[in-house]
Amino acid sequence: MKIRAITTGLLLQSANQSEKIQQIARFNQQAKDFFEQQGYEVQTTRIASNSWGEYVAGSTAQEIVKKINNLEQLCHNLNVNFFSIGHVSEAENIALIPEINKNTSIIYCSSNIGDTESGINFANARESAIVIKRISEETTNGYGNFRFCAWANCPPGIPFFPGSYHQGNTSFTLALEFPDLVMKAFANSENLREAENNLHSILEAELTKIETLAEKISQVFEIEYQGIDSSLAPALERDASIALAYENLGLTKFGYQGTLAISAIITRVLKNLSVKLCGYSGLMLPVCEDVGLAQRANEQTYNLTNLLLYSAVCGCGLDTVPLPGDITIEQLEAILIDLASLAIKLNKPLSARLFPMPGKQAGEMTAFNSPYLVDCRIFRVD
Questions:
Q1: Under DSSP, is residue 266 helix (H, G, I), strand (E, B) or coil?
Q2: pLDDT tens across 201-256, in order?
Q3: What percentage of the chain has pLDDT greater than the value 70?
């Protein structure tokens, strides 16, 4: 098990509150050191703010882009490598995201396309589709979409990027990486019921240890602890693949019959742990962040519609999904509306991080050249 992210949230009143950001950066390093002294690997520390629309209000579009760029330079100076400026819920602000994205490299953000109270925001879904398309065309290999997602029903305090945003007092949350524990639980199981029980027992023990340390950090540094996002996030190593863990249970290949059932079992475990939970706390199936998922995508054992189906019982939505470069705004909009419909009907957080690949068609391979992503076959869009 690894700690993928210590994410600390803060409220900004302006984009140049350097002292406040410096304090959070210092706390993140102290928390990282604390966990590492206890034997845990901490992959990243991150900062998430409230909606950037709140602390650049009254500025022109050009001024907003400049302020966010200056914020990134401040982060560089403080050795902050991951900063989320939160989400926006106004179409006119969503429209500015491509300019922000192509003028930054460590700034993440998101758009709100619906919730259970207001339903689907169709204008925001349309504008978000335009954003995804523009970013794919205006950044190298469309890679800027790694730092943007559209979401429905997502709460504050998610430690995973790019959907992370903050509300309330300064606080921190944790994102974990434990496909090795899933592999262990499933490898020692004869059937699905035993797999579920084994996974619950292992995660209950390991996450309780993490939480005890997090509560100690909270007491020592007087920063509120908001919980663990128990989401099962994959790693790029083959022996840490979620898809291949499924197959340890006797599933012929990920995507075949039985995939939905195993997804539901894993999600049920992740949502019923006794530790304080936050964020998605469900199964993640990021196509280009899991060697096994990418391999099965290459073999076409599942498709975009299957991923939407799995979202009904999983925890995240559509993540790092490669799409044809000539996908239309209307097609992207339809995908976002489908996802928002599921999120609202099921009252759960779902997000979409979609990767239209410029100059490439369905069936061709991606070419990311990224330490965070694995290449795979581009999905067909009907």
A1: helix
A2: 999 999 999 999 999 999 999 999 999 999 988 878 887 888 988 888 877 899 99
A3: 100
Residue 98 in contact with residue 43, Cβ under 8 Å? no
pLDDT for residue 89:
97
Strand pairing class (42-49; 83-88): parallel
Instruction: Name, in order, each residue with C-beta under 8 angstroms of 375's C-beta and a sequence gap of 6 or more.
Output: 288, 294, 365, 366, 367, 368
Order of strands across the sheet that contains 107-112: 224-229, 171-177, 2-10, 42-49, 83-88, 107-112, 148-152, 350-357, 317-324
Concatenate the DSSP letters of all residues of 144-176 into one string.
GGGGEEEEESPPTT--SSSS----SS-EEEEEE
- Interatomic CA distance for residues 355 and 149, integer angstroms: 10
pLDDT, position 285: 93
Which amino acid does the sequence have at 171?
S
The yes-or-no verdict on residue 73 having pLDDT over 80 is yes
Q: How far apart are CA 175 and CA 7, in angstroms?
A: 8
pTM confidence score = 0.96
Distance CA 242, CA 234 (A): 6
Q: How confident is the model at residue 121 (pLDDT cuts 50, 70, 90)?
A: very high
Q: What is the spatial distance between Cα 38 and Cα 258, in angstroms, rounded to a whole number?
A: 39
218 has which bridge partners? none
In this structure, are residues 285 and 312 in contact, taking their beta carbons and an 8 Å threshold?
A: no
Q: What is the mean pLDDT of residues 36-65?
A: 97
Single out the residue of 296, 281, 299, 285 nearest to residue 348, CA to CA: 281
User: Are 351 and 317 in contact, with CB atoms under 8 Å apart?
Assistant: yes
What values do phi and psi take at 314, rounded to 5? -95, -165
Distance CA 381, CA 379 (A): 6
Residues 6+ apart with CB under 8 A from 366: 288, 322, 355, 357, 360, 373, 375, 376, 377, 378
